[in-house]
Amino acid sequence: MTSSTPASPQGGERRRRDSRVGDKIFMNLSRGSGILLLVVMAAIAGFLTWRSGIALGKNEGNFLTTFEWTPDAPKPVFGIAVLVFGTIVSATIAMAIAVPVAIGIALFISHYAPRRIAQPFAYLVDLLAAVPSIIYGLWGALFLVPHLEGMTSWMDQYLGWTYVFDQSRATTPRNLFTVGILLAIMILPIITAVTREVFRQVPRMHEEAALALGATRWEMIRTAVLPFGRPGIISASMLGLGRALGETIAVAVVLSSNNVLSLHLLDPGGGTFAQNIALKFSEAQPFGRDALMASGLVLFVITLLVNGAARLIVARRKEYSGANA
Hints:
- The protein is mostly helical.
- The protein is 70% helix and 1% strand.
- The chain is built from 11 helices and 2 strands.
- It has helices at 9-56, 81-112, 115-128, 133-147, 149-159, 176-200, 204-212, 217-246, 249-254, 273-280, 286-316, and strands spanning 69-70, 77-78.
- The chain has a two-stranded antiparallel ribbon with strand order 1-2.
- Strand 1 (69-70) and strand 2 form a beta hairpin.
- The radius of gyration is 26 Å and the shape is flat.
- Residues 319-325 have low confidence and may be disordered.
């Protein structure tokens, strides 16, 4: 017969003391990591602001409305009007294509496809996110651009009355519309992967309750899955939008850039912030690099505003987060 000896008060006190020390260490490490992130962000913002101030002080044009980009000329003139337009338009086209398709793929993997098909399909989608940008750019330039000539001609013929899809001259479609399609393909795996995992976290009881009340599978998804996953869809979309706004190499390979701002999306030309920085940084003089820093600061601010807006939207939709499920 064995008997257990009660733990000594000194041993219990020592364990509690060690636990408190471990909690304090973990808390301080977590706090330090957060502070370090803020310091890095502040350092980036401060550096960009400092270099931007040097360039803007000598700019002979209006930084917000000028189309021209000649910062290394005797009289430096540069502006971001074309870059803002191209960045926003290409990212908007990409989001309009990618988000609905990504939600459909995520629903198919999580709620429609059999397991033996869903797992390989999900693995394939995740694998697409690891493809380097230059590969997408080469594929876009060598395959996507030639195969879009027929589509752009059809859109010009039947949708040219909208002015946006009116093609002023028949040329190779190295335009913002093509860039938007390429960006949609690039951000599709990111949005799909995050959205799929969110849909998988929907409480099983919610789905079974909807089905028990006589709902069809689509009605169950509409009433139980989509409301629960709405914050996740928004977060996934913002991740994709962040990549679309900052994509560089693929856009530089596909887009035939110029300093012309045209509402004809099928006409070649335009530009984006990241593409302009990548193409002109190596050949720019010191003052020209300061001007590129100024455009980079604008892109930095746009990215912060987009992510901040996403956080506000998610915060207002806490009732759909599933926290009270």
